[in-house]
Amino acid sequence: NGSASSQSCSMAPCPSVPSRHGAGKAEDTFKTSPFHLDLWFYFTLQNWVLDFGRPIAMIILPLEWFPLNKPSAGDYFHMAYNVITPFLLLKLIERSPRTLPRSMVYVSIITFVMGASIHLVGDSVNHRLIFSGYQHHLSVRENPIIRNLKPETLIDSFELLYYYDEYLGHSMWYIPFFLILFIYFSGCFTPAAGQSGMPVAALLLVGPSSLYYWYLVTEGQIFILYIFTFFAMMALVTRQRRKGLALDSNGLFLFYSFIITLLLIALWVAWLWNDKTLRKKYPGVIYIPEPWAFYTLHMSSRHADKGSF
Fold this sequence. Notes:
By secondary structure, the protein is an all-alpha fold. It contains 11 helices and 2 strands. Keywords: Membrane, Transmembrane, Transmembrane helix.
């Protein structure tokens, strides 16, 4: 029988065994996946410590430890984030119950690392400018320490740095990030609606996760990317419900995190709706101030006054 099967395989092509991330073949077999407590916990923890904690560590730690011409503590946090986050995203994709497009995942991870690395350099210099009096609630050319530079072509160089930090770096960083989350979300469905639910651990993590996404969207100025991802999630949920499928615990965790994030963004905008200075910095229909622009405008002077006493 063995020789006969080997001869038949030599005469006719045998079907290949699909890998964990197939070449775009999405199977219609759905399995119930347990809640990935370890991955979601590490993911939330490192987001808070390595991303949100970057500028805080740079401001709190003594300047003598990290001179302005050397990498700061926040830069080392950023380096660790650029290594750990893509690793966790790959581990998350590996646990997806569906076969996912391998090429898209690889390209997304590569672009993510490149964008986060570009942002590392630009963000490092921009945050270090705070110690020289740079004010994030003003544009580059309106900053007192920038507009008096000679020759004036130096101002163009700082605007280029700002572009790499706030536009190119953010785009190459966040677009693959949300794309990977959506790709994973597309496999978080199960035919057994009775098994769909969130364990206690997921309920405890959904608050910190949502608060971090609020920071990510507001500080990164990526509301359009976020809202399109959220609408795509809603459309996918509606479509799968018509097929009798429901979100599993991991899908519910992501979906509820995005819903709470939207509520937090709405509260943030409503609170700062009448701030004339921030309105000038963020003109247009979509008005979502950055938290660090709010800090340099309303909080940094208070901290300086306390330090003088």
